[in-house]
Amino acid sequence: MPRNDERPTSTSTVVSEDQNSDTESSERCDSLTSSSDVDCSRQSFTSDSSSKHNSPSCSPPKTLTLDEVMASARDLSNLSLAHEIVVNRNFHLQPPDLPQNSLEKKVKDMVHKAFWDCLESELNDDPPEYDYAIKLLDEIRDTLLSFLNPGANRLRTQIMEVLDMDLIRQQADNNAVDIQGLVSYIINTMGKFCAPVRDDEIKKLKENSGNLVTLFKEIFRVLDLMKMDMVNFTIQSLRPELQRQSVEYERAKFQSILERTPSALDHTNEWIKSSIEEVTRVMPPSDKSSDSGQSGKPLPGPTLVLNTAYIRLLIWDESKGPLPETLMTDEVRLQEMQRSLQLYQAVASVLLIVYSSIGGVVSGLPTLVERLKKMTAVLLEGMHSNDFNLTEALGNVSAQICCEVNKSLAERNFPALPAELQETLKGQICDVTQENNPIRTLVEGRVHQYFRVVLTSTNSHRTPPPVPPGLGLIQPELMGLGVSFVNLVNFNKKVYGPFYVSILKNLLFIDMQAPTPQNGIVQGPPSSPLESK
């Protein structure tokens, strides 16, 4: 809370922050994440001892009571809010904006109109009645007092004296209350407490000499904005402290949910299990046979399994199942990353086709290439939507590319592209929609290769590695996305690492013999579940 002689900064300054927050997020993740994937889980897979927060609850299934469900819902809400405040420095609350034709808005407008009509009717009586006006003044007084710090005794006493409800009621009974004077004092006091962004609103209130009903409406509207400003100021003030305690807080909250709802890790179990199966499937044939005579198959290391699991999040299909429970607080961020990556891959595929078909025309013209890149990204914006016609959009992209290239050729006194070449280029670009398209497959494979390198690099959250050949045209975008992704992954590992350790222990290393490393593949439990990368 700000001092009484200070005004909270405007929430608009919070909203105006751009994506350079990734840099600060990198610094935070650097302090939270050491060279190990999950330092907090420095325990052996073969060890049976663990603290309360180092393993998920193994309680048998039970029927949940309503109180337990509500308590879990509150914990999940608090967990989501705290996580959003910590990882999103642009996070702020906004006044609710109800849909225009919604039932809630209709009921709200109806009730408010009835109240304001009653107020206007009372004030227009002769002599005027002040019952509703006094209720409003009482509510305004409580709101103004809520803006004060506990030690602001002088201002508190002043507000209580000026807005003395008992005195105002006595004055109203004798038709001697000065409503205009009280409203003027309220507006001046609001001007002392409001954020600078609300100065214009206060000025309009001071200039408003219309009827009292309209003035009261505006006062409450501005007070609601000031409440939101105060909440957002408090969020900014609490953010550094939350960042210092975020890992322990989020882990404790999730453990609390898990104790009430033992099935709260079911989707996470399936996520990790399917990743183990995926990694095992692509293991080299030579590694699948055991030379030591042991009957057990060699298994992938836990770090490889988790990295593969995180990579799968970039192509997650929600129609086939929900996200793992441990990543629900990052669902929106993951969706944004998926959509951005999908767009970047499409842009890279189109530009690779352009280079392979007419590379001699565009080579040495970085301005033209950048223009083609931006134009393609604009025309393909929203391609993740179900109602987006990708084939039609790619047809428009190819037409615009041919137009821009011909324009560039004309400026340099060269002939336009042959009609046959333009048709070929259009056909190749439209073929990108096919899943087995070689260009699309190449780009997607190298993108996944890049993110695997990002996850295994020790300093990728500060200095992302260079992109593979063929992706140089989207290098800035891909590197920025890589930093955001590795920050999300590192923080997630730090919070939920102990739960992942327990799941991996159950899936990989129960009843296994001593490890036999083979080319990075382990056959038994390692001494540390998540080795340093």
UniProtKB/TrEMBL annotation:
Biased segments, Polar residues type: 9-18, 31-46
Region of interest (Disordered), ranges: 1-62, 282-301
Keyword Membrane belongs to the record: yes
GO terms under biological process: signal transduction
Protein's name in the database: T-complex protein 11-like protein 2
Gene: LOC107744901
A UniProt-annotated Pfam family: Tcp11
Similarity comment text for this entry: Belongs to the TCP11 family.
